Every structure is written in structure tokens, then in C-alpha cells.
DNA sequence: ACCTGAACACCGTTCAAGT
DNA sequence: ACCTGAACACCGTTCAAGT
């Protein structure tokens, strides 16, 4: 007899649910499922800031931005709401942690000898990819203030990259601001419309996939128009 | 002796504060102020949806978007929270009412024989003006979904105007989407940064006014670049 | 038709207390 | 250091009741 001992006393840390890596199920007899024990194993280990951040992003992607509350996140992590405050100063700090996690995925590092147009395409390409991958959490990054702690350094790197491509500092600032405004406005509205059913649909790939593709094509077209226009009116005329 | 009778019984409607139309005060002696009775007159009259909407916008501009709650708005109007539900179905409906009020101020009516570039400049100029005038409530309009009840008809009018300027329907749709994305992204971030002190400062005109002007110049420059680029890559090549 | 208080199921966060 | 329950001051909204 297998005895699963679930300790419930204090100070032992939250229960972190360890998922099996998507076990395929080719038959669905009820008896077999029970025999296989396809129940998520629950291992007890101490919670970290990374755990909290990961769970928060998963919660947002599953249930939407409105579902991101300290209490709900705690119940997701099977711990008391106040336990979160050991790893996160406040709800705002939690959002900063999420933004920090997402911003890492952006490609802003400068490339040797790259024209500024290509640098912009590369940066905004990764921005667009992020909107595709995490459409609901994306908004937290997209609308985060420029001077928030996770955003500011990445902005500095991006600016330095543009200057390395030969733009004047003031040109780089304006161009990045303009291009970022375009991408932010486009992608936030796009991501919202894509996830407007309040909960995430399990599989909406084929039909709406075409509409998505189409809108992202418009995104790319607008970006090319913007780059061409900036080159003609801001850079070329110097 | 002037007797001010403030009825407090039921069913007589909320107290609506009627402001004097910005009475100039060239002297500020305390005694005089009292003698003049420059206290807002409080007249009892029945509340309307328009009253609720007006008060909501004023509340948002004074205390920020986070302050927009049914309970707080009710206390602002000196009535019970539940009284608001006579005029507004829900908080979301209240936001729709605000968006509807703001969107009226946009200039989207088509002009006879106007090139599409000028139509875009006119529409986005009024959009930018709105961000200047109501920077905190602006976000509600800017990020409202395209298919929300107050937004959809105005979008239709704007599209018709662009088509009247000679654009193909598909061109008009793409161009409006791209240009709106740019303006939305730019102005939302701009408006947020302008009002980041959580409460509105009483008079921050001179110093930050220069920075504002500068950023709005960048907005206009970006718009011109975008129009030029769209003309070259989307319209001109046909 | 319009307004109201009590109640319900939520929030973020402080505090004192546990291990 | 990490976790916890109780408590406080908030939310939006339903419901039954008042005029």
C-alpha cells in the first residue's frame, strides 16, 4: 500500500504541483486511468520568487488579466495569500517580476555593423513574437512605464544599439519612441481582440489563425511603411 | 436669517452640486469670501446618466483611473452606491458611457474632396487634443475594443470618410488600423507619463509644459513619417 | 421610476504570531 | 527566513424594501 503523506503543519513551504510532461493518452478507459495514477504528483518544496512569477504568468494566460490577484495566485500555489509577500513586496512588485521575465525574451542586443532599419526589425520582431506567445500577459510589458525598474535598462541597451548603427542620439530616441508606440498600440489591441472571450479557449487554432496571420501581416506592412517614412523624413534629409 | 433646508429623507434624489461658472477672485480676503457665499449651491434634483458620466470623468481626471469605483463615485455625487445602478447597468456600462462622451469630441466626419492624408491628420489631431485635455480618462477611449458599442459606429464613419477620399476599402481599413495603432500607443504612454504622480498636481504648467510640447512634436513628426511611408509603400505603388 | 441599506463574495495589505 | 490566520478598509453587485 502506497502511503502518501501530506504534511499540513506550519513552516514547511507551499505545495508545488509538479506536472507530468503531457502524458499521451491513446485509450481512455476509466479503470486504466486510475491504475496509472495520472494525478499530478505533489512535492513539497520551498517557494521562490521565480515560482511565483511563473505561476502568475500561467494564471494570466489561462484566466485573463483580471484573474491576477494575490489571493487567487496563492490558491493556485496552494499556499496562504500572505506567503506570497515573502517573495514579492506587493502586487505592483509582482507585476514588475512578470515584466522582467517577459522582457528577457526581447532581442535588443546590438548587432555588429547592422543598419538601424534591421535593428528595428529585429527588436520589433521579438516584441511581436511575445504578443503571440503570451497575449494576455503581454499587456503588462507593453504598457509598463519606460522608467519602471525592469524596462529602463533594456531601453538603454536598445538605444545604444541604434546609436551603434549610426543614428544620432536624438534621432535614436525619437525613432525608438515612434516605432515602439506603433508596435505597442497595434499589438495591445491585437492581443486583446484575440483573447476577448474572457477565458482562454482550449483550441481555436485553425479558423481564427487565418485572421491572426492577416492582422500580423498588416503589422509588418505598417512597420515597413514607418521605417521607410522615418528614413525619408527624419534620417535621409540630414 | 437664511435658512438652508437640507432634506435628508428618501426618494428625493441625490444632491447635485451646481458649481458657479469659475468665479474670478481678484482679492482673497477671507471675510469677503464668506460674505460672498462662494460656497457651491446645493440643489436637489434627480440624477441622470449624463450627471453620472460627467462626475465620473471629473473624478478620473482629479484622482486617477484607480479611483473610479462605483462607491467612490457615489460618494462624490452624495448618494448611495446603489443609486448609480438606476442610470448605469454596471461598471463596464459606466466606462462605455465615458467612452461615448469622449468619442463625441473626435473629428471623424468626412470632408468634401479632402485627400486621405489630410483626413488622417484631422482625425488624429482631434485624438491628440483629447489626450491633452483629459489625459487620464483618455486611456479608456484609447484602449476600448473596436467593437464596443460607442466605438464601432465612429470607426465606420472614419472608414467611410477615407473611402470617400479615394482609398480602396481594404486600403482604408489597413491604413486606419496602422495609424490608429501608432497614435494609441504613443498617446497612452505619453498621457500616463504626464500624470504619473498619482494625484493631479494643481499647477504643473511651465516646467513640464516644455517637455510635453516636445513629445507632442515627436508625435506629429512620427505621424508625418507614417503618412509618407504609407503613401509610398501602400498607396503609391498601386 | 428612482433611491436605499444590508448582505455576499471578492480585493490588497498590516500585524502579531507561529516554525 | 519563511509561512500563517485574523483583521482592516476597500471592491462590484444582488436583493428586498422603501417612496
Please provide a written account of the structure.
The structure is a homodimer of 238-residue chains. With 238 residues, chain A is mainly α. The N and C termini of chain A lie far apart (81 Å). Chain A folds into three domains: 4-38, no CATH class; 44-88, Homeodomain-like (Arc Repressor Mutant, subunit A), CATH 1.10.10; 107-235, Tetracycline Repressor, domain 2, CATH 1.10.357.10. Chain A contains nine helices and two strands; from the N terminus they run E-H-E-H-H-H-H-H-H-H-H. Chain A has a two-stranded antiparallel sheet. The first copy, chain A, binds a DNA duplex (19 and 19 nucleotides) through helix 3.
CATH-defined architecture of the largest domain in chain A: Orthogonal Bundle
* Subunit arrangement of the protein: homodimer
- Counted by DSSP, the helix tally of chain A is 9
The coarse silhouette of chain A is globular
Encode the helix/strand succession of chain A as letters: EHEHHHHHHHH
Radius of gyration of chain A using CA atoms only: 22 Å
The side-by-side strand order for the widest beta sheet of chain A comes to 1-2
Number of strands of chain A: 2
Helix-strand makeup class of chain A: mainly alpha
Separation, N- and C-terminal Cα atoms of chain A: 81 Å
What pair of chains forms the biggest interface?
Answer: A-B, 31 and 31 residues
- Average predicted local confidence, pLDDT of chain A: 80
Protein name (chains A, B): HTH tetR-type domain-containing protein
Organism (chains A, B): Agromyces marinus
Keywords (chains A, B): DNA-binding, Transcription, Transcription regulation
InterPro entries (chains A, B): Homeodomain-like_sf (IPR009057), HTH-type_TetR-like_transc_reg (IPR050109), HTH_TetR (IPR001647), Tet_transcr_reg_TetR (IPR003012), Tet_transcr_reg_TetR-rel_C_sf (IPR036271)
